[in-house]
Model the fold of this input.
Amino acid sequence: MLAYEEAAKAIDFLISAFGFEETMRMDGENGTIAHAELSLNGAMVSLASVWRDGGLATPHELGGVHSQLWVEVDDIDAHFQKARAAGAVVLDEPVSQDYGYKTYRAIDPEGHRWYFAGAV
Done:
């Protein structure tokens, strides 16, 4: 589960930049999100508002990226253009890899690193 300081804004970003679809949301107290699920191409990721008592913090709070999420997409170049246009911080532009994928990496507004891949 990914933790976001501003989970509702993060959901909007992940939908507009990366093409996820919101499939479930449980609101928490004071405008927080207790649990949400987003899907893309049959894969699901869950997220919530930070829950410090439960040990959930954002990468920014931890001082750096602590993981990288691998997500496969149908058209890597179109996905990349959409993500960049929506404000994703691009670390690497799309490049063909020796292992049969074309990939790029981006960071969302709260520091989670995403590694997108499409078959060559």
User: Anything to note?
Assistant: Strands lie at 2-4, 21-27, 33-40, 43-49, 68-72, 89-96, 101-107, 113-119. The longest helix spans residues 7-18. DSSP finds three helices and eight strands in the chain. The mean pLDDT is 93.
